[in-house]
Amino acid sequence: MPGTQLGDRASIEPRFELALQGIWIAFQPIVAWSEEALVRTSEASLVRPPDFFDAAERLNRVHDLGRLVRRQIALEVQAAQAGLTFVNVHPRDLNDSELFDEGAPLTTVASRVVIEISERASLHDVAGLAARLSRLRELGFRIAIDDVGAGYAGLSAFARLEPDFVKLDISLVRNVDLSPKKRGLVKAIANVCSVNLGMSVICEGVERSGERDVLVEDGLNLFQGHLFAKAASGFPEPTW
Description:
38% of the residues lie in helices and 19% in strands. With 240 residues, it is α/β, with parallel strands linked by helices. The chain has a single domain, classed as TIM Barrel, CATH 3.20.20.450. The protein has an eight-stranded mixed sheet. The model has no long low-confidence stretch (mean pLDDT 85).
């Protein structure tokens, strides 16, 4: 499990501070027209994003990490004048008043930002979730569910978030061209989301042309993965 080797609170805290000081933002294209911002740090002991976020949770520093990340992403988006940028937000950050502040750095570029909420984490601790999501949309943000197929929230997340975008987890996409059952599942999820619910579907973790070709054949056209570009600082150009 992520974070199980991090140690006790006393040993985590100084490393977490170093990780905050060494934070940087990587971007990975979503083909055909967006980018996703990914958190990275130069602190070796927390270089894996799951460990970094687990440390933030254990130290009750999720808001500190979230605010720093959003501030840096806002600067990158302003400088690059990019299209849409997807920004991962921990469910606990939905309780942070700064996220809804009209003067917050990320709000200034809200029309070009999609708030991405992972299905791996629980939304039950978010008070007044519907009102908070409505406020984000008023500010100009759009909403996405991340890691669909890997979490435990299931259909309840769709009902509660009513997202504009759905990101299929890499576990569903990996070798989809080699598994008729997996292909059928992806196609069914995509059909319900796009046709019945009006949501755009993004396939994460596309690494082989065979995966891409099958997904295209089944009507999907938004992809992210090493086949097109690896995550890097700045806004990397995808390869086709």
